[in-house]
Amino acid sequence: MKRGRGAPFRGIILAYARGRRPLRSLGFLCFALVSLAGPGVGSLALGQGVIRQFVGEETSLRIRDPAQLARVPLPNVPPPPTVRDTAQGPLEWRIPLDEAIRVALSNSEIVRVLTGVAAASSGRTVYDAAITNTTIDEAKATFDPRLEVNNNFRRTEPPQAFFDPLAPAGVSLGGLQTTTHDLDVGLSKRNILGGDLNLRIDADTSRFDPGVFPLNPETRSALQLGYVQPLLQGRGAPANRAPIILARIDTERSFFQFKDSVQELVRGVIEAYWNLVFARTDAWARRQQVEQGQFAFELARARLETGFGEAADVAQTQVALFNFRATLIAAEANVLQREAALRNLLGLPPAGPERLVPTTPPFPDSVTFDWFRILELSGQYRPDIIELKLILEADQQRLIVAENQAQPRLDAVTLYRWNGLEGETPGGDRIRSDGGQFTDWTLGVNFSVPLGLRAERAGLRRQELLIARDQANLQQGLHSAAHRLAIVVRDVAQFYAQYEAFRQVREAARVNLEQQRAEYLESREIFLNLLLAITDWGNAVSAEAQTLAQYNASLATLERETGTILETHGVRFFEERFRSIGPLGRLGPERCYPESMRPTPNPPMYPNTGEPSENFFDLNVPTANSSRRVEPPGPALSPPGFTPTPEALPPPRNVGPSLGMPRSP
Q: I need a surface site. Which of 28, 147, 235, 640 has the fewest CB within 10 A?
């Protein structure tokens, strides 16, 4: 045999064709295919690579370098302001609370929630409910007609041995060559009762060679109509409609989960807004403490230089001044942190050319609650309670399916088929059967059941236990909601009582500061008394602003706990108003429904003075010689793209009679 790269291969094929142990020859054939690349180490390496490709395991981590991943353009934002960077822009965005809520809703493609002094993604997006809504069509697709077409051409020629006295061995090899064309067309439809109706047309054309046959070619055809109706398992509209209802319930759950996150977004915006108001007020109070401490320090040093003071007074006033400055730095940093949290919730970059200046004054009046009314609203409108109710509805549908599956399989079967035959005789004549001449029919009942129905009965029992568990979860949800409402009601009462108390403390601290300052100027009191007076006054201003901000935030939390915070602020989802969603609701092929439905202006719920909100706290410097009012400088700015809010005061806010909480300033 000629030596070469192709010779071993031809030898193996011949050995396999002669019947030399087919399994061993086949394995040797695979090894030869691997060795075709050439002798030596290269062949061995290639063989190992092929073996690893089919039977190897992943024994290492293949991690790409981050530089190989797709590059994403980063937002072009300026560096954030810090307490060391005092050169902030003079522009101010004087934003009322209504506009802040509207901006947050406009930028809520990814819903953010407040987490302390920062904001984070809630994990909910505007696309969630629309994505889940597609499962309804997937469940409905079970009942869509199904068309099936099989069109195949094939040729078969199996070899056979024949006795042949003319052959040298008395046996010759031959075979019948059959060429066929098979066309099968089927249409099936499942109905809501669980029955399957199918219509099928078969046409098979065959040609034989060699030989003489009665019909060559011949065409066999059949028209078949069949119907299978479950009588026990799989029967009835409730069991077959359950997957669609479950998909609808899942869509509702996704919607209310999204609504729950939006409610938390609105509540977080309100809380962050009032936190910023408090931080700005607190920074003003700390700044006044620094001015008071600076004045006392300069006075003590002047007295020492003129011989009427002592070095101990200078040292004491200097320590107090440095402490006040340290406290002011923390207060200014808190302003930056609170503003950054609000900007994050609004979907704005961490820094911009303008500063956010709240212009809605806090609500200072006491409110009363109808406890039983807000408890009833909580059980009706809280999204988490609604979700627990939907879970129970889903459990009931799964129970229907489990009860249906726990029955034996009993199907009524009917079938009727019209058969036809057509072909060409050896004489060249073409004949065919008459319509309805050859027919088949089937009528029967099929029964099957796993003895004992162990798995099915276990599934039914599990579903019944799930219903009991989810009913307990619903009761626990209502129980927890009542306790959370009670906590918020107590917080509202506590913060308002503290606000009234700190308002009195502030007035007393102002009088005390003016008195101690006058006494210190006349050298009738030591500086320690003035220091305590300055500290008490600054703390009182800060505490008054903090408790009033907490009070206003608690009112929003109460609306959140009742599940009515969106309705209170005039926010309605498009689906809740028009019950429309999906591709038919789009205005054009290029519009993505979830992100194209942008919020429209909601009615104003909060007053807007046009001035910084901290001015509500009567920011007058408590000195005997000055009654100036401190207002942050700078022109107001309303960034393009947002509807400016009128400077006039809107109608007084009213939470609504449903809460029993009239809130008019």
A: 640
